[in-house]
Amino acid sequence: MQTATSSTSVSNKNVVDVLNDLLETSRDGEYGFRACADEVDSQQLKTVFRERAASCATAANELMEAIRACGGKADEGGSVAGALHRGWVHVKGSLGADSALSMLEECERGEDTAVASYRKALKQDLPAQVRELVQRQADGAQRNHDQIKALRDEMRSRKS
């Protein structure tokens, strides 16, 4: 039989796991947007990518605070998939062909992953304060996705 204390710590562990998954997603986004900013020639896109990287860094800091508040320890670094994604961004950037469009396409793929991660997290049983944070960040990830998609569509229409 579990006591209230052990039940709470299991619950907190689950919440911390969810938050750490989102932390990894946020770090991947930050690093990915920075990689794109480094590779693209367009000043407008450099600015957009740097702003999105800063937004992801802010989200990561908020998640680390929430993890600590739940009695957990924040995981270090991003994911292997995120590292591979950034490597692909650098390869595409070095090839130079349709660099801006390629960077936008890669960013949109990354944002698809982020939106899916937040949707998965919101299906979990989360305390009200944590759910509010996750929902706010999920809304931000969706806005990032929509902005990147709109820029990508605009660039595709210019190429046609």
TrEMBL record:
Gene3D superfamilies: 1.20.1260.10. SUPFAM superfamilies: Ferritin-like. It comes from the Bacteria. Residues 136-160 are annotated as: Disordered. Pfam families: DUF2383 (PF09537). Residues 15-124 form the DUF2383 domain. Residues 142-160 have a biased composition (Basic and acidic residues). This is PA2169 family four-helix-bundle protein. It comes from Variovorax ureilyticus.
